Amino acid sequence: GQVINLADYRPTDFVLERVDLTFELDPTETKVEARLIFHRREGADTTAPLVLDGDELSLYSLLLDQNELPAEKYTVTPETLTIPDLPASVPFEITVTTIINPEANTQLMGLYRTGGIYCTQCEAEGFRRITYFPDRPDVLAVYTVNIIADKEANPLLLSNGNFLGGAGYGPGKHFAAWFDPHPKPSYLFALVAGDLGVVEDTFVTMSGREVALKIYVEHGKEPRAAYAMDALKRSMKWDEDVFGREYDLDIFMVVAVSDFNMGAMENKGLNVFNDKYVLADPETATDTDYANIEAIIAHEYFHNWTGNRITCRDWFQLCLKEGLTVFRDHEFSADMRSRAVRRIAEVRHLKAEQFPEDAGPLAHPVRPTKYREINNFYTTTVYEKGSEVTRMIATLLGRETFKKGMDLYFERHDGQAATVEDFVTCFEDASGRDLSQFSLWYHQAGTPLVTASGSYDPANATFTLSLEQMVPATPGQAAKEPMHIPLRLGLILDNGSEVEPTAVTGAELTGDVLHLTDRAHTVTFEGVSSRPVLSLNRDFSAPINLHFNQSPADLAHVARHETDLFARWQALTDLALPNLTQAARDAREGKPVTCDPVLIDALLWAAADHNLEPAFRAQALTLPSEADIARELGNNNDPDAIHAGRQAILTQIAQAGVETFAALYEAMLPSGTFSPDAASAGKRALRNTALTYLSYAENTPDRAAAAFAAADNMTDLSYALTILAHRFPEAPETTKALADFEQRFRDNALVIDKWLAIQATIPGAAALDRVKELQRSPLFNAKNPNRVRALVGTFAFSNPTGFSRADGAGYAFLANEILDIDKRNPQLAARILTAMRSWRLLEPVRADLAREALLQIERASGLSTDVRDIVERMLK
Ligand code: HT7
Ligand code: ZN
């Protein structure tokens, strides 16, 4: 794998006008005929050869304008097909035929088989594993697809666009033809064939067109697709209402498959989903599963405009579609559920995943300038930080102007392959604002650190706020420029009311948004009648780290009086973190751990505040995770001490609040039949949070065992099982519950994933042997990405004490696993390996052992480009 540089981008020499594909499907020998009509681009070199991409391909035949091309007229390898001497000015037709083996395709890129069906995944560079092709996103063409297959085994033959027709095709076979009128890049091509059940519905668009909606799942699982269908219809309506975007084909299809490298894929008119993000019913899906299904169905649907109608010029522009589409799905979930609770969940996720990436060896800009393996750039930085950057544009410009910019973007770039610059220019043109400094968010990696301090001057009735920003060095970027940071803020008085300053100097303030543009600002608020408490970065308006030494009393004040609910949660977190870091230090030195009564008070106050929705209270009571504490500590991390300290704090809060938690546990039982809606889910969340605290206060498995026995839905059942397994791993109640769960759900692989994940995250050194034993279970399958992620991935990502055990055995285990997975599925191996991205922050003994494991991977022969790229960057 060589390095690809953004600076080397050039348009193709040839324009692709039309694509006609014919697939003769066979499990091991599928014949693919691609008829491609090209003409030379105006102004392009008239002698340049046509160079097509391939990946592990073998050419069966090659025609130019229907005549076989003699072997001396072209050169071919598995990776390229080069044809010189092509017409200078007239269009010509190339017919490429390849034979591929879907059954042998374990990478799950290109055409492969899963659960007896044929399925494709072409993003980013999978199409070149099907046929030789100009496989890059700026080559847009109109496709016709013919599929020929055995009729009995494959009653269903699907591709992009609208169905043209079908008929018998010789003995035992049939064919179907599809036409997609919208020009698209090859990464959006899809084909699915096989025997599946279907759930059908319709949607009438804003202009009155009826669209057929179809969700295909394994036979018998149709009832479990009802929620996904509902989410799809709500997504289609929302995109019309909020972004003015109408669907543009007669049919929209979703297919659920059980082997898939990521969550889902937005192929034009034919989305392919990991079945984990389609199938749900109360008995098998948790509230989190329902929320994920809603968000991912929406995300893929929203790509129809942000990604498909307007696509990316090159893969460096990935955030153009991904960051924007995540922003759109976040807004959708906020409108469907509780905005503040969704925002808290988003920020927790951003801090847990993106902040560590941005602070470690894999840090890269939202819009990178080089890559070795594009699959490794489907990162939380491109997705989630990309979404935050889009959100900041909306914050800076205001909703109205943001909407104007979006409308301009859709109007100006529809049908094009665009760049981040094109996108930003639309907002500059819509607002008249210069966004050049703001654009640094796309180009500078690293989480900015803002240091704040405030002082009140009663004599002059002024409040002065000093702010300094610093963007840390990241790989390849030593020095950074100051960024344009939109900081939303509030000054809250004793009685909870908000200051409306008579004047503000030292920085631009629009509404409650303060614009930091210099390295340092001294901002003075005039007309402040008494000492205010400052609430900074409301709603997480900027994805930054904030150093602001606020007293526990001030934080508690914000936690009680802020009008912005997110800021209230943030204040509780800021109150808890110093307690938890101190607890870790104390635990490491064998000292007793104590919890600040101010924290306990604030938490119990929030817990019992009936004006707050239950989902919010559950979030407020969920302390920062062990990973959050590790991040706060910075380096020299000892996961055992962090765990012990956090457990001690939890126990003290639980003991102090035992009555509150017992009352909540009784009060929060949702009434009536099960509903996955946000309000009922919120009650379950608060009830289960109370149950967790009670397990600390009471220190017996009794209550969790009773909850396990009484549960009538997967949220409550898996929560109770988690408490039993994590808190009382040796208790007979736990052994029994784990066995019951296994027995009850052994035929449902997605539920078994929960059983694997819960056991993989039991704290402590014994986890590794448990994981190894689970690998030998007949319910585990090393070839299925969901199973591997649930067991090996969850262990490495989410079990700090088990994975980072002091003897390094967790790291050595992961190194072996990565090498094994890499042989089948490099993308999956590379992704799981990123679990070690923060290895340098461990205490020295563990860090050395982690480095050894990484070196073992690096030295192995036959590494994929995917794993090599990650391991080398991690060791650099
Ligand atoms: N755009 C999709 C990305 C994706 C993908 C990328 C690489 C390899 C496999 C993949 N499957 C899906 C998903 C999305 O962001 O919507
Ligand atoms: Zn996406």
Identify the notable features of this structure and list them briefly.
Neutral Protease, domain 2, 27 helices, about 900 residues, 33 strands, 5-stranded mixed beta sheet, alpha+beta, binds (3S)-3-amino-4-(1H-indol-3-yl)butanoic acid, Immunoglobulin-like
Radius of gyration: 28 Å
- Figure out the total of helices: 27
Terminus-to-terminus distance: 17 Å
What general outline do the C-alpha atoms trace?
Answer: globular
* Helical content band: 40-55%
Number of strands: 33
Distinct ligands, ions and cofactors found in the model:
(3S)-3-amino-4-(1H-indol-3-yl)butanoic acid, zinc ion
The count of domains is 6
**CATH architecture identity of the largest domain:** Sandwich
Average pLDDT, rounded to a whole number, is 98
CATH superfamily of the largest domain: tricorn interacting facor f3 domain
Spans of at least 5 consecutive residues whose pLDDT stays below 50 are none
Strand order of the largest sheet: 6-5-9-3-2-12-15-14
Largest sheet: 8 strands, mixed
Q: Beta-strand level of the residues, as a percent range?
A: 15-25%
CATH topology heading of the largest domain: Immunoglobulin-like
Classification by helices and strands: alpha+beta
CATH class value of the largest domain: Mainly Beta
Pfam family, one: Peptidase_M1_N
EC number: 3.4.11.2
Domain Peptidase M1 alanyl aminopeptidase C-terminal: 553-876
Domain Aminopeptidase N-like N-terminal: 21-188
